[in-house]
């Protein structure tokens, strides 16, 4: 049997890509996310990704073009998931303080529970954001996140609760920074200072204090 016939048989036998292309692509992206997070763009290998999926190397190229195309799609999927999680919080119907609290809690939890996302962002920073810049989807997704935070801030200001000299983009930076460092520097921080902050109790305390820091920063009556 020729190479094309062999690949087709392999793909069908390992996952039935003809019957479930969306499922196969989702499987590829999940495996690739772990591989890129562990090895970076240059270190990840399509052969290794294919070996851990339900399909073939040929079909990876068919769906994603090349390794850089797959990496870009992985970035898009990573950002899509975090923004989708924010959307499901349904914050528009909550009082502004509760909405901001829920958003901070979600961000802290998401980053803590998805270290591959943090590693991917760190890797993309090594590449100076070059692949992220090529994705219109990521730009739209993250613009929506700032718009959502703008609505929370506006409602908080109108209620006389939030200070009016903080831009939503800066607030997003503050929330992201506190939640990101908790994961990005976990290995070095815990080796230098011990792992107490990364115990279950330590993380619960950190989560609560991150919320308090953000609220103290934003609430007019918490700035004394």
From TrEMBL:
Residues 22-82 form the HTH tetR-type domain. Keywords: DNA-binding. It comes from the Bacteria. Residues 1-20 are annotated as: Disordered. Residues 45-64 bind DNA. Coiled coil: none annotated. InterPro entries: Homeodomain-like_sf, HTH-type_TetR-like_transc_reg, HTH_TetR, NicS_C, Tet_transcr_reg_TetR-rel_C_sf. This is Transcriptional regulator, TetR family. It comes from Chelatococcus sambhunathii. The lineage of its organism: Bacteria, Pseudomonadati, Pseudomonadota, Alphaproteobacteria, Hyphomicrobiales.
């Amino acid at each position: 049997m020729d190479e094309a016939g062999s690949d087709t048989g392999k793909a069908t036998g390992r996952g039935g890509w003809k019957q479930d292309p969306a499922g196969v692509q989702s499987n590829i992206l999940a495996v690739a996310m772990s591989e890129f997070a562990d090895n970076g763009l240059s270190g990840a290998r399509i052969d290794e990704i294919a070996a851990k999926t339900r399909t073939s190397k040929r079909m990876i190229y068919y769906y994603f073009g090349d390794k850089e195309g797959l990496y870009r799609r992985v970035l898009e999927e990573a950002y899509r998931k975090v923004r989708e999680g924010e959307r499901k919080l349904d914050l528009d119907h909550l009082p502004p303080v509760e909405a901001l609290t829920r958003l901070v809690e979600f961000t802290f939890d998401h980053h803590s529970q998805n270290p591959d996302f943090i590693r991917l962002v760190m890797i993309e920073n090594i590449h100076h954001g070059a692949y992220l810049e090529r994705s219109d989807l990521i730009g739209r997704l993250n613009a929506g996140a700032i718009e959502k935070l703008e609505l929370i801030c506006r409602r908080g200001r109108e209620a006389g609760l939030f200070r009016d000299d903080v831009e939503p983009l800066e607030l997003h930076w503050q929330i992201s920074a506190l939640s990101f460092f908790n994961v990005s520097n976990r290995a070095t921080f815990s080796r230098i200072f011990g792992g107490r902050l990364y115990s279950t109790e330590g993380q619960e305390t950190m989560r609560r204090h991150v919320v308090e820091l953000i609220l103290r920063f934003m609430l007019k009556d918490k700035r004394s």
